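Re-running the complex after MR caught last week's input typo. The corrected sequence lines follow. Everything else is unchanged.
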Amino acid sequence: MSAPGRTSPGFGRSGFSMGARFLLLAVACIALMLLDQRQQHLVRVRQALDLVVYPVRVAVDLPSSTWHSLRDTFAERDALIEENRQFRRERLETEARLQRLEALESENTRLRALLDSTARVGSRALVAEILDVDLEPYHQRFQLNRGLVDGVYLGQALIDAQGVVGQIVRVGPLTSEALLITDADHAVPVSVSRNGLRTIAAGTGDSGRLRLLYVTNNADIVVGDLLISSGLGGVFPAGYPVGRVTEVTLRPEQGFAEVLAESASSLDRDREVLLLWDSSKAAPQASVPTPDATVAELH
Amino acid sequence: MAAKRQWWASTLSLVLMLALAAVPLPDTVAPLRPDWVAVVLLYWSLMAPRHFSLLTAFWMGIALDTLTGALLGQNALALLVIVYLAEKFHLRLRVFPLSQLAFTVLLLLGLYEFILFWIDGLAAAVSPDIAVLANRGRTVPLAERWVPPLTGTLVWVALYMLFDRREREAPARL
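Corrected-run output:
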């Protein structure tokens, strides 16, 4: 065997022994982890690295995106016509509902003005596509094809046609990473739409399941209650459906009841989600990233 | 020239492994996913030691962390440790029969998984978050965490059987 000084093509070797190099690099790793732990020190570094691995991400996503576009290209004419007809029908229905909603909205703003409270304002939205890329196991996260160039910011809320999906936890130049509301590290402030009872819906780590925290045994909550985002915490706009209560177990010995809910959004079926811009945060570019979105939301 | 070609082959294999680590798998198969990058790095560091420096392990780990959204440095540290051990003891390990070699690889991959697991635990302990506290006792099924080293060892053995002949024909390396 040759001495450690022997060079291999492409990778330069310093004069250090292997043990010393190992120690140096290990210390570098530990320093990186400590800096990255709170997420705000290495934002620039991570963004640069994101750009480096972007080709790999695109390559991994390629088979499924090609499959989708091929399927669209070669879809049967009849199927397309049928789909089109269905969309037109749905659009009509949605527009009819929207007309009523607009009337209600203007009435709502008027009433709020009378009450002297701040008016809720509409927000901008952008469709983002979910990249078919598997992330770290044991976490419910996914990659989106929108990043800094599209004005995505940390803590931005994500919804789909059915309800709240999650929030952005990391923004890269061209892609971003979102955390699902069902991730065990996530919690959304919610209220029961029937009576306004406020609670927190924490993720369980199981797909589609939420657990309601600190619901007392005598609280008025029953199976089937709709949970909507309460807007407290400022991450999720108020009024979007989060889930529906599926199980209420009273635990007289413990003070709080065990309440489980099913999330409203259907992530296992969608490939597209909506990014929401909170209009209270002025321009998307000007928004200051919160240090730790998940925690900040709860304070 | 041959060395250069081999460098390309191994670099390509590593980039391919990065992609494999992120390829979407159905939920039922996902827990079986071997730690591709670790397996291939171990293959190269046992079969063609000194071919890659520790720096390669470090950069591969950083790339893997970025790609999978892990804590920056987590995979890098775990990869560094196992590659360092493999390189340090490769002379002793290479004379092992395949069964013992496979067992050593299993141990190293187990160590890799343990380091990842341990850092996860530390990170969670450092930032106790209300949701985490509420879910205390939620378990990443422990059994599931030990499956990737097993499948990884199988992949390693397959690599060994496929490519070892060429390595033996060129023993001049040592």
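None of the earlier attempt is carried over here. Confidence is low (pLDDT under 50) at residues 130-139 of chain B. Chain B is about 75% helix and 0% strand.
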